[in-house]
Design a protein that fits this description.
With 185 residues, this protein is mainly β. It has one helix and ten strands.
Length: 185
């Protein structure tokens, strides 16, 4: 009986002390990326689906446009990888035709207008490998200033109630840019 009881007591002791040492370890939460990936998407009544994948940096008390994002320079439209947009059918973006496909979307911000660039070059890190030779569309759009401060860079793509058209909007700090989106019938 003594031979059977001793191994049992040792096993029980290991379980108790082993459980306590595991419980005493600090749980380290996963890292919170400074610029998490985000997605916006919508569907239109004609069956067109559009999505935009982008990095969403934070303001963090910095001067954004004219500071962190210089005026007059090509910007990745977010953080990390260049923003990418996919449309399943042809659309008009700001009144200009854009064929179905997946594209990089960049911008050249200025104080009063932005130039939005849709480019066939995919897989870009930032705008470092950007080449205007692959531009599919460029359009100039006015900038609106808001009273609200948008801490996170945000892109929204929303269809109207009927689903016949929509709006692509980009907001960061007190800057907002909106471009109409219409499926081509």
């Amino acid at each position: 009986m003594h031979r059977t009881l001793l191994p049992l007591l040792i096993a029980a002791g290991l379980l108790v002390f082993g459980a306590n040492s595991v419980a005493a370890q600090d749980i380290i939460p996963p890292p919170n990326p400074a610029s998490p990936r985000a997605i916006t998407q919508t569907s239109f009544s004609d069956g067109t689906y559009a999505s935009i994948h982008y990095g969403s940096p934070r303001k963090r008390d910095r001067e954004i446009f004219g500071g962190l994002v210089p005026f007059g320079a090509v910007w990745r439209l977010g953080a990390n990888e260049a923003t990418e947009m996919t449309v399943t059918q042809d659309i008009q973006l700001g009144g200009m035709d854009l064929a179905a496909g997946t594209y990089a979307v960049l911008a050249i911000p200025n104080e009063e207008t932005w130039t939005l660039i849709v480019n066939a070059g995919l897989g870009m890190w930032g705008a470092f490998s950007y080449s205007d030779e692959h531009d599919v569309l460029r359009l100039e759009t006015p900038v609106s200033m808001t009273d609200d401060i948008h801490e996170a860079f945000t892109i929204t793509l929303e269809a109207n109630e009927e689903g016949s058209a929509g709006m692509l909007s980009m907001m960061w700090d007190q800057t907002s840019v909106s471009i109409p989106v219409t499926p081509v019938e």
